[in-house]
Every structure is written in C-alpha cells, then in structure tokens.
C-alpha cells in the first residue's frame, strides 16, 4: 500500500517547484457501488485515500501546493448530506501544509450550486466562474479552465449558460436521457450532460493568458477536469469543445502539458504539437488499502509525475 511508482530516470538536479495531485475523490457516506459501465466504486474508502495523500504530501516537505482535479464528492451523496460531505472532504485537504487549488467537476455541481461551492473551496474565478491562473515558480504559469462554463448542471435552471447547454445537447444528443451516449458514434459520444464546454469569454481569456505567457517567456501547464485530447481519454469523457480549446492552445508554443481528471482510468498521450496530456487515475476506484495520488516535479524541460500505487509514474519531456 502506498508504494511510489519509480520513474526510469531520477535527475539529481532540484526541481523548480513541485506540487501534489489527486482527482475524483467522489466521497459519499454510502455503500460501495459501480459506475454505469460496471467499474467498482469505493465511496467511503476514497476519503481514506485522500487522508493518506495529505500525510504523504506533508511528509515530502518540499511540495509548494496541491491541485485537486475535481469531483470532491459523488453525485450519489444524499442531498441532505451534500454540504457536510463537501466540508468534510475540504477539511482533509486543508490539513495539507500549503495552498490547495481546486477544479470543479460534474459531481461537485450535482451536490452544490456554484454560488455555494466556489466560495467554500476558495476558487478565485470571477463572476461565478471557476477559471483562473497562478504563477507558482520561475518561468511557469498554471492555467485552470472551467470545463462546466457552458453546462446543464451547476447554473440556475433559467441561466443563459444552462439554456445554451440544453439547446446544444438537444441538437447533439437524441436520447431522452442526455447522460446516455447510446447511438452516438466516435467522438460524438462526448455530447452528454455530465460533460460541458469552455465558453467564448473564457476562450478569449485563455488566448490573452497565452499571449501574456509568451511575452514573459513562461511555460504553461493547463489544468481542466475534463480531458482535452481523445488519446488521453475515453470518448465519453472529453470536453464538448476540446477541439476549440486546443485550436487556441496550438497557436502558441508556451503550453507544455494539459492535466485532467474525469476519465478515471488514467492515460498519457502526446499530441501533434508535442503537448503532453495526462488524465489522472481516480481515488474513488481504489479498492480498500490501495491509493491513487502523486506529485509532480517541474523542471525547465520536463514534468515528472511520481505516482503512488494505482497512479502510474509518467515522464513528460519537452523542448524548453
């Protein structure tokens, strides 16, 4: 339990900075269950995975911060327990001796509306948005995208973004259950209600951030709950408009990696522009006494993910 997946090479040089990663805790005080495709889910055990992660991150002593890649509690959490469950998991994150940055996922939004969730998790996005950026170390910027900017969940029912998402799904998904991809083919299987899109205003914001990073000669790591590359995700887990987002990103050379959750399985790909995509293994799907979390050492020319147990270590090299 808790063994670190050792990478092929371990450079002697000190990283510029390091940060912890975990995704899809999806805690709920309910019996174990299964996903819609039959994968076992361990709702009560997942918070123990997080507790062990926080202990290991604190013992490391050189981690600058932690990023939670979304889905802090599960959608099956009883509604009258949602607020307490989010607070309970958030309290575990707060035991880390440093800053914790959160992304929102669909399960977060099943439980709490944005106006409660974002302040609780101290997400610094403007006007109810959950996108923001931080500059954590020399020559780097981390950009956090809000993959549920345009979404049928999380916003008030009559909000323009809810209406836009509902209209989009009506056109793209003929099923009465909009969470079902039945009958959809290939990449069209992403057009389900548990996914979402990056809106026009956020795309313009991203473009401005990447322009600025290019001028400042910063390297950029993009984080989003939803994956941005079909080779790093199942078709059903992709951002609705991942192609639009990547069209913006590919205009610049500063983005070196895109990190995500949501897919649960954990995958790594390198796209046609040399950008690494890594979706993380879910804490929720760890059988008792197993783990899925890690930390990333950031260098001038690589990111090294040191995974624990079910999270695979990954070397991500790029041109500096």
UniProtKB/TrEMBL annotation:
Coiled coil: none annotated. It catalyses: CDP-choline + H2O = phosphocholine + CMP + 2 H(+); CDP-glycerol + H2O = sn-glycerol 3-phosphate + CMP + 2 H(+); ADP-D-ribose + H2O = D-ribose 5-phosphate + AMP + 2 H(+). Its cofactor is Mg(2+). Keywords: Hydrolase, Metal-binding, Zinc. It is an enzyme of class 3 (hydrolase). Residues 18-265 form the Calcineurin-like phosphoesterase domain. Transmembrane segments: none annotated. Pfam families: Metallophos. One of its GO terms (molecular function) is CDP-glycerol diphosphatase activity. Its EC number is 3.6.1.13, 3.6.1.16, 3.6.1.53. It comes from the Eukaryota. InterPro entries: Calcineurin-like_PHP, Metallo-depent_PP-like, MPP_ADPRM. Monomer. Belongs to the ADPRibase-Mn family. This is Manganese-dependent ADP-ribose/CDP-alcohol diphosphatase. It comes from Salix koriyanagi. The lineage of its organism: Eukaryota, Viridiplantae, Streptophyta, Embryophyta, Tracheophyta.
């Amino acid at each position: 339990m808790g063994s670190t997946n050792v990478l092929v090479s371990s450079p002697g040089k000190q990283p510029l900075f390091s940060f912890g990663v975990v995704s899809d805790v999806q805690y709920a005080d309910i019996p174990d269950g299964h996903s819609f495709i039959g994968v076992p889910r361990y709702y009560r055990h997942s918070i123990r995975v997080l507790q062990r992660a926080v202990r290991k991150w604190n013992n490391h002593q050189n981690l600058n911060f932690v990023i939670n890649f979304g889905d802090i509690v599960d959608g099956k959490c009883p509604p009258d327990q949602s607020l307490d469950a989010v607070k309970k998991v958030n309290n575990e994150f707060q035991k880390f001796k440093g800053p914790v940055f959160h992304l929102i996922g669909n399960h977060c939004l099943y439980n709490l509306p944005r106006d409660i969730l974002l302040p609780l998790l101290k997400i610094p996005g403007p006007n109810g948005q959950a996108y923001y950026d931080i500059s954590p170390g020399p020559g780097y910027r981390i950009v956090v995208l809000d993959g549920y900017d345009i979404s049928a969940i999380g916003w008030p029912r009559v909000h323009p973004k809810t209406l836009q998402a509902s209209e989009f799904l009506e056109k793209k998904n003929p099923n009465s259950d909009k969470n079902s991809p039945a009958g959809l083919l290939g990449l069209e299987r992403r057009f389900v209600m548990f996914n979402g899109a990056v809106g026009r205003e956020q795309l313009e914001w991203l473009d401005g951030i990447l322009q600025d990073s290019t001028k400042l000669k910063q390297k950029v790591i993009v984080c989003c709950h939803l994956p941005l590359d079909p080779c790093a995700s199942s078709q059903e887990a992709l951002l609705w408009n991942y192609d639009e987002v990547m069209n913006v990103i590919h205009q610049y050379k500063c983005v070196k990696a895109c990190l995500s959750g949501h897919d649960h399985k954990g995958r790594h790909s390198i796209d046609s522009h040399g950008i690494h995509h890594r979706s993380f293994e879910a804490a929720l799907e760890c059988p008792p006494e197993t783990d899925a979390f890690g930390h990333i050492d950031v260098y001038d020319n690589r990111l090294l993910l040191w995974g624990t147990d079910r999270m695979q270590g990954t070397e991500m090299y790029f041109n500096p």
